Amino acid sequence: MLRKTALSALVIGSTLLPGAYAMPTVQPTQQAAAQQAVMKVNLNTASAAELSMALTGVGQKRAEAIIALREQLGGFSDINQLMQIKGIGPRLLELNKERIEF
Description:
Layout: H1 2-20, H2 28-36, E1 41-42, H3 48-54, H4 60-73, H5 90-96, E2 100-101
Parallel strand pairs: 1-2
Helix pairs in contact: 3-4
């Protein structure tokens, strides 16, 4: 009896299984292309909305603080200058270093 149940499950499963794999999969080359298509943002020209959209961990208030510091400094020349802003530390800079340009 157990063999008949196992055999039935195997037959039914094999008929349903191909449909489960019919969904398209992402190829490794597509994943690499998606990772390379990182949205870059210029710290010296971007608006607060652009900064908050492009940078991980940066919301509207932090973006406004970045703009205020930019105006105070007369523009950014080094990514480490962002650490003067409360809540921005080495981890946040590491997450965003590929997205930031000057």
